[in-house]
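This part of the workshop introduces the protein records we will be handling. An example says more than a description, so a record of this kind follows:
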Amino acid sequence: MRIAIIGGGSSYSPELVDGLLQFSDRFPRIDLAMMDVDPDRLRTTAEFARRMADRRQASVRITATQDLDEAVADADY
């Protein structure tokens, strides 16, 4: 399942990611694309989200991009 988070650099993004990770065992793989226009905030939240996923040992791939088309390409949500 591919999920795009538009505004991925937001301070609310880690809370959203945490909610998704709580159900990660129900999906074989989650591809999470985080998109934001602010590269510094995006980098920070994406790195934090990766640490959260690693801590839960979740099968989640997290990518960060400033390109909206890239983020939503093939997204299910």
Summary: The mean pLDDT is 95. The beta strands are 2-6, 30-35, 60-65.
